[in-house]
Amino acid sequence: MAELAKAIDTASRAIDVADSLIVLPEAFNLGREYGSGDTPKMGPQLDHRCVLADLRTLATMHKASFITSVIEEGSRNNSAYFVDAGPPRLMCHKIIDDGYEEYSPCTADCEAENPLNHGETQIGVLVWADAFDNRKGQGAAPGAQYAYRRRQCLLSRLVKVPRCLLCVPAYTYLDPDLPGVGLILANSRPGHRSFVKNWKGGMVGTPNDLHKNEVCLRDLSLIVENHIGPV
């Protein structure tokens, strides 16, 4: 959390972070690299409730908001939350099993407040593997059809509004192809990029250094139509 606070302070020297939406990588409370546990189901080092509370404090301090995923205690759900100065808002649980055994894939009631309205912008979220079409090939992942229907339903709702964002907390070496929406992917996989794409699929932002923790902010007018403000 100290590294995040430092990265935000660094970014704030170049641009006002107030009213920004900052997307964080998948399983933000792991406290280690994703998939690096010594044993399967090792679990996160940080309590997800404490991490969400700390994010709420940062959001209040900087008048910003966050989207991230955390591994929840007990249920082991990989859950995406929107965090601002108010109580954290659950958006969805991850459905697809990505093979790293960091969480228990959701099999029912996987959708909460997704998308949600934030000011004039509608925001949706899919956690990494759920952003892809996992139905392809003979080894289709369990829950692939369910995850695909959820993805397509979310996209169909987002593209109906002019100001929409799809956020993807991730640990990945792949880029999802999701045209028609502003796309923000926050990636914790070493050597692989996070990025911001506009609704046409054009790249509008990447970090300067893949090997450093960095907050990359871009004006929302570059990502979605007819809007001004950082993201």
Descriptive notes:
There is one protein chain. This protein is 18% helix and 21% strand. The protein is of the alpha/beta class and 231 residues long. The protein has one domain (2-222): Carbon-nitrogen hydrolase (Nitrilase/N-carbamoyl-D-aminoacid amidohydrolase). β9 (195-197) and β10 form a beta hairpin.
Q: Would you tell me the structural class of the helices and strands?
A: alpha/beta
Count of discrete alpha- or pi-helical segments spanning 4 or more residues: 3
CATH topology: Nitrilase/N-carbamoyl-D-aminoacid amidohydrolase
Provide the CATH superfamily. Carbon-nitrogen hydrolase
What profile does the largest beta sheet have?
6 strands, mixed
What is the total domain count? Answer: 1
Beta-strand percent range: 15-25%
Strand order of the largest sheet: 5-6-7-8-9-10
Order of helices and strands: HEHEEEEEHEEEE
Mean pLDDT: 89
Radius of gyration: 16 Å
Helix content: 10-25%
The CATH architecture term is 4-Layer Sandwich
Q: Name the overall outline.
A: globular
Assembly classification: single chain
What is the level 1 CATH name? Alpha Beta
Number of strands: 10
Poorly predicted runs of 5 or more residues: none
